[in-house]
């Protein structure tokens, strides 16, 4: 659907500019835009390589594992019914630790593994369990201490102060995660009331 919307906007813009005999500015904008896109992409590669290297060092040195240990007691309260020694718990904790440290690329494999493990605990295989939904909500709205990807994009775009967004990002992502947990708990409560009534 998004592709169709973009296609309509692009074709519509070209048709309108053609009808008004203003194709030159459109052509210039296309050339300038593509040049800028390549420039930003190449600038982004360098800074992302640095952050991914840092993520690897954090993983190999045990920093991420240490951070995960700090998160473990909180995570076990968020996911009732999952044994602390279950593989899903370890993968979820590592995913959250990577997301909080702004290492989105490192977080993805842990997130996929966590969902795989959570599926083994799911009684209804064709529907997401409550714990799967909670994990997805937290993963999507995760708190971020170091917004590495956005900082990298700002560096690539030539920002004079690319790290100025760190403070606002921490505040915004803290609120987004709290709201995700709060809404998840409301829906869990409503679902459990509904199932109790049905029984």
Q: What does this 3D model show about the protein?
A:
The protein is 79% helix and 0% strand. With 199 residues, it is an all-alpha fold. The chain has one domain (43-198). Helix 3 (63-78) packs across helix 4, helix 4 (87-100) packs antiparallel against helix 5 (104-120) and helix 6 (130-140) runs antiparallel to helix 8 (166-198). The longest helix has 39 residues, at 23-61. The chain is globular, with a radius of gyration of 22 Å. The mean pLDDT is 81.
Question: What are the salient characteristics of this protein?
Answer:
199 residues, mainly alpha, globular
How are the SSEs placed, and which strands pair?
Elements: H1 2-19, H2 23-61, H3 63-78, H4 87-100, H5 104-120, H6 130-140, H7 148-156, H8 166-198
Beta-strand percentage? under 5%
Give the N-to-C terminal Cα separation.
41 Å
Question: What's the helix count?
Answer: 8
- The gross shape turns out to be globular
* Radius of gyration computed on alpha carbons: 22 Å
Give a short account of the largest sheet.
none
The average pLDDT score comes to 81
**Helix/strand structural class:** mainly alpha
Order of helices and strands: HHHHHHHH
The number of E-state strands comes to 0
Number of domains: 1
Unreliable spans are: none
Helix content: over 70%
């Amino acid at each position: 659907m998004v592709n169709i919307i973009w296609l309509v906007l692009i074709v519509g813009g070209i048709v309108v500019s053609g009808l008004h005999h203003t194709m030159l500015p459109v052509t210039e904008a296309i050339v300038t835009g593509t040049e800028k896109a390549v420039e930003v992409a190449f600038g982004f590669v360098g800074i992302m390589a640095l952050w991914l290297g840092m993520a690897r060092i954090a993983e190999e040195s045990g920093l991420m594992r240490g951070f995960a240990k700090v998160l473990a007691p909180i995570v076990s309260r968020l996911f009732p019914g999952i044994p602390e020694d279950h593989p899903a718990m370890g993968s979820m904790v590592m995913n959250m630790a990577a997301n909080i440290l702004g290492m989105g690329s490192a977080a993805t494999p842990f997130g996929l593994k966590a969902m795989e493990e959570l599926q083994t605990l799911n009684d209804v295989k064709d529907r997401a369990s409550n714990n799967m939904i909670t994990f997805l909500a937290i993963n999507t709205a995760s708190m971020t201490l170091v917004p590495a990807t956005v900082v990298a994009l700002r560096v690539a775009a030539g920002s004079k102060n690319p790290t100025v967004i760190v403070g606002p990002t921490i505040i915004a992502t803290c609120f987004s995660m709290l709201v995700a947990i709060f809404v998840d708990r409301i829906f869990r409560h409503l679902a459990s009331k509904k199932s109790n009534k049905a029984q």
